[in-house]
TrEMBL record:
Signal peptide: none
Gene3D superfamilies with a match to the protein in the record: P-loop containing nucleotide triphosphate hydrolases
Domain called AAA: residue spans: 567-704
Major subcellular location class: membrane
Any Pfam family the entry gives: AAA_31
Residues of the Tyrosine-protein kinase G-rich domain: 398-469
Protein name as it appears in the record: non-specific protein-tyrosine kinase
Membrane topology qualifier: Multi-pass membrane protein
Keyword DNA repair: no
Alphabetic keyword roster: ATP-binding, Cell inner membrane, Cell membrane, Kinase, Membrane, Nucleotide-binding, Transferase, Transmembrane, Transmembrane helix, Tyrosine-protein kinase
Family, as annotated: Belongs to the CpsD/CapB family.
EC numbers: 2.7.10.2
UniProt organism field: Aliirhizobium cellulosilyticum
Amino acid sequence: MTIFPPEPKDHDTFIDLDKLWSAAMRRLGVIGACVAAMVVLAGLYLVFAQPMYTSMTNILMDDNLSRYAEENASDNQSAQMLDNRMSSAVEILKSKELALSVVDKAKLDQNALIVAPPKSPVDLVKGMLRGVTSIFSADAPALTEEQIAAGRREKAAAIIQQWLTVERVGRSSVIAVSVRSPDKLLSAQITRTYAESYLTEQLNANFDATERASIWLQERLNDLNTRSQQASLAVEQFKRDKGLISPRGELLSAQQLSDLNSQLIVAQADAATAAARYNQYKAIIEKGPEAAVHNAVVSNRDTDNTVMQDLRKRYIGINDREQAIIQQFGADHPQAIAMKAEKQDVTNQMFRELQQLTGSFKNELDVSQSRVESMRENIQRVAGNNSDANVNMVQLQELEQKASALRTLYESYLQRFEQASQQQSLPIAKARVISDAGVPVSPSSPRKTLTIALSVILGLLIGCAAAAVLELRERFFRTGEDVQQKLGMRFLGYLPRIAGAAREDAPKPSAVPEQGEAANQPVGDPISFRRMMRVAVEAPRSQFAETLRNTKLACDIVLQGKKCAVIGVVSCLPGEGKSTVAANFAGLIASSGARTLVIDADLRNPGLSKMLASEPEVGLVDVILNKTSWTSVARVDRRSRLTILPMTTRGRQVTHTSELLASSGMSQFLESIKDTFDVIVVDLAPLIPVIDAKAFEPYADAFVFVTEWGATPAKAVQSVLQSEPQIAAKTIGVILNKTDLSELHKYADPGAPERLRSNYLSYYRDYKEVAAE
């Protein structure tokens, strides 16, 4: 089995609600503290927050109001056009110009609640600082009455803009205007004034725009009228000067040229047809009489010459009879020779007929070409006469287009001018109020119920986030399952925290009770160092003793058959309680009747030796160096019959501790006492700071690993065991020391033994109960 087996992959995609609930219960204090803090802050906010009252009115942007006043009013508007119109209306309501209009109409610059509101503590502090700085600054010039009034007006407009909220209601044509202020009547007054000012602004804007358009259009009409008349006169004058008179609106020379072009196209087509026919018959004649006979079929398709058709039929009949005689009597037969001579005669007749046809086609071609040449000469003559007239017509068309454009533009502007004049007398706004602003009966903010509810929700969110952070930062051993999953080792059990116990590296008190005095201490007093060595012995039915008893059983199974078992007790870091575990583990074994020796081998910080009533004069180092015998150094606990070999550093600084533990003196010492004891428990130094335990490893038969519950990082234990495979191979199991049993069940999965501790708690007797007795 590997030390760190790979964690099994969880293919379940669902969230483990049990683990989430357990994590929430573990961090319930953090979550509760966050919720309480947020509720307290919300309460302070509700106490000191100024109540605000909100008044609202709704304005409908209605085009139907001007349907009959505008000739070009459109019933259909695209969604984008409507959105643009509503967005523009919202921005107009938020504008500074409209805010100044509201201030002037409602005389808000004279309202003390707006221009001189009660100052908050923060404002008072700012005023004091501003007064102090003004002492050292140059005096500003005095303001005039007009400047002071303008400043009050600007301030009032800025404040009501902060109070104002304008938004479109969904996708409708309704705009909601609301005002929040400390005074309910003031909120209603400002809201109504805003609606009235907006409608008035719409009327004024329409009237001003129409008036400006009418003035501009009048000026343009006068100019266009003059220019249009001048252009029409220029057209007539040009026609008269050039003599451009045409019955159909075009020149006579242009009409003649068009007719000649049409005739030329027809003549060219006829000439091309005649040339093609002539070339075809000429090619047939050039091939000779024999070829002419075979190509005579073409001539039959192009002409209705009956002579050629008869000659063709005669030729075919003579050829058929000739072939029949040759097949019956041979080519030398007199009739075959006569038929051949007759066929030659027909061939000559057909060739002469084709020559006559070719001559006639040549005459037709010459006539067509002459006609084409004549047409071209006439076109050139007419085109030369028409060139000057065309130039004049181009100039005339340019003058006519200019006159027509000016006339059309004048008519368009005249129509728009008439429309603007009519609209100027119809002051109709495209908006109306559909919900008047009322006086609010209760403040809109702060909302007490909502604020408290939000504070609770926010506290829960912050608390859950803090709990999640704490859970993610959890890198310690909490349960035996953590030990098995992260280390792949046997879990030996939990050792509860001994109430009132001091840390191993803490200074020893000046007076420590002896064995008999420890039993007479009050229950709530700190446990003496000497008594901490006998917790398992004095409370044999406690969970503390049961865990050590389980550890002893595991060692007995693994080390079965050993004459004298050497068991090392190690940990990663100082202060994890390994010395207390070693002393109690050895005491438990000794109380069962086995001859047991516990050795304090932590040469640099002998925590086990500090538990004794008095610091020894000599110790393990002297035994290893053969300066004294171990019997003169060892001490015996009369109650548990445990032999203790302490360590002392009085008067000397021990260096090279690892070399002492790995020396031949240590080996000889262990060999010399193996016949005397059945079990030797060795309290070794922590693994991370020093290498003493690694040096002692060859002499140890097994190791018991001690980690502090909720304090020793799992990564540190993994790193140590990976770097020390010899120690890992000999480790019997892991003990979780200083366990808070009241919190243990919160870290266990549902159904785990840690969750069922209340069911078997009657099997244990706590150490406090034993001490009280």
